[in-house]
Design goal:
The protein is mainly α. It has one domain. It has 11 helices and no strands. Helix 7 runs antiparallel to helix 8, helix 8 runs antiparallel to helix 9 and helix 10 packs across helix 11. It is globular.
């Protein structure tokens, strides 16, 4: 039986996507560098397009966007990394003291004894796991430092070269397909990159807004470890669905030590900040990337279990690719008379 044009295009696309994903099983480090490089390039390309819309030549716009992004990245690393590493050590001491003094019992005043006992058992079981996790991170910091240097080197080189050849790369992808399938392939990749570009920029801005806002709020309320927790807030916002939960757990622990009223005010303000960040995200995305939440959750579960943290970071883009794939190849085939 001869396959239709759509189905043949779908098979070619699935084949190439599987080759790309298979890199993660060969080398997670290489795959992570590729993903972050592609993310940076997409963000730079979208900003360059905005500058080009203001009558700035595209090459000059790309150079401006590239220099600005690289300067901001390395400035952020120089300012944040030493302080964050120092605060991690202090945070471990704080956590140990927090659990030993059972400060979380402040939240359970006037509660039934059986509830207090159950939560106490849970917290006692949680304590060694959290301390062990953070201690392992500190022990592995020298190793992470070496990997970080390699990561930043290839990220910088890859971003510089790829930024200038990105449009050429997109145009050449269609030539991986037979001539009869190139029109649909070109439409698929153009729409895919367009949606992911907007997602990357929207996520970056929303995460930066949450991180910076959290820092100022914690500084105003006198909550400790402002830099560490605000950095953590920005990073976890890149993870869909569970990112907010991961963000709030250490914030609640630190907030309890500052007093119940302070913690409640802090959580209320952070909820408002997240609502504003969501509005920023939606306003940038507009009609782009409306993915079914169920697809996103399953994408997160599958990729998170297969590729760990990197899989969680690309869960939404993969869900977007699946949607574009469906609309480009499968839906027209199903609606054929």
């Amino acid at each position: 039986m001869k396959l239709s044009t759509n189905l043949r295009g779908a098979l070619f696309t699935v084949f190439y996507l599987l080759i790309f994903i298979s890199i993660s099983f060969i080398s997670t480090d290489v795959f992570t560098i590729i993903i972050f490089t592609l993310g940076f390039v997409l963000a730079i390309n979208l900003v360059a397009k905005g500058l080009n819309y203001l009558k700035i030549p595209m090459k000059i716009a790309t150079i401006i966007s590239l220099i600005a992004s690289m300067f901001f990245l390395y400035l952020l690393l120089v300012l944040l990394v030493p302080t964050v590493i120092k605060e991690i050590s202090n945070f471990i001491i704080f956590l140990n003291d927090f659990f030993q003094k059972a400060q979380w019992k402040i939240l359970l005043q006037n509660q039934p004894e059986n509830i207090i006992n159950n939560i106490e058992n849970f917290m006692n079981a949680l304590q060694p796991k959290i301390i062990e996790l953070l201690s392992n991170i500190i022990e592995l910091l020298p190793t992470y430092g070496q990997k970080a240097f390699t990561f930043l080197f290839f990220l910088t080189i890859g971003t510089i070269y790829f930024s200038f050849y990105f449009d050429t790369f997109k145009n050449k992808l269609q030539y991986l397909y037979p001539k009869s399938l190139r029109n649909s392939a070109r439409a698929f990749y153009n729409e895919t990159f367009n949606q992911i570009e907007h997602y990357v920029v929207a996520t970056l801005l929303a995460s930066a807004f949450v991180g910076v806002s959290a820092f100022f709020v914690m500084s105003f309320l006198g909550i400790k470890y402002q830099l560490l927790l605000s950095f953590w807030a920005a990073v976890t916002n890149f993870i869909p669905v569970i990112g907010v939960v991961l963000e709030f757990i250490p914030m609640i622990i630190v907030g309890v030590s500052s007093g119940i009223s302070t913690m409640l005010i802090f959580l209320l303000i952070m909820s408002i900040i997240h609502a504003i960040a969501f509005i920023i995200f939606i306003s940038i995305m507009k009609d782009y990337g409306r993915v079914n939440p169920v697809v996103t959750i399953f994408s997160l579960l599958i990729l998170g279990s297969l590729i760990s943290l990197t899989g969680a970071l690309i869960a939404v883009p993969i869900a977007m690719i699946i949607k574009v794939f469906w609309n480009t190849y499968i839906k027209p085939e199903l609606e054929r008379s």
